[in-house]
Design brief:
Length: 120
């Protein structure tokens, strides 16, 4: 998706810079290609921080995503209890196209499992 983003950025700039010569930095992107099957490759999860959910209830949050995901929850009121992280990880690993989101205002994880491959 980063390549697509860079193409969109390039297009946006080209619409503004009508006199572009072709050697401007926005015309290039650094990429690294490697074989995913390489035993030395480790792909780590990408962390995202979402803000602005303070006016949303737990039920409202779930209802927004219910058309697309089966949703389960794991309460985590004591963040020093690391066993809950293992529980969440196991639920993700057992699901197809699954991810978890910890919502601090609700002190719980929501685990989302995609309902259908057709939604991708």
């Amino acid at each position: 998706h980063r390549y697509e983003t860079s193409l969109n950025y390039q297009k946006e700039i080209l619409e503004k810079e009508k006199e572009a010569k072709g050697d401007e930095p926005f015309n290039y992107i650094m990429m690294t290609l490697f074989k995913l099957e390489d035993p030395g490759v480790v792909i780590l999860p990408t962390y995202r921080l979402v803000k602005g959910l303070d006016k949303l209830s737990a039920e409202g949050f779930k209802n927004l995503l219910l058309p697309y995901f089966e949703i389960s929850e794991v309460d985590w009121p004591d963040t020093s209890d690391k066993s809950k992280l293992e529980e969440v990880q196991n639920k993700i690993l057992n699901g197809n196209h699954a991810f978890a989101a910890y919502v601090s205002q609700f002190t719980r994880f929501f685990i989302f499992n995609l309902k259908s491959e057709n939604l991708l």
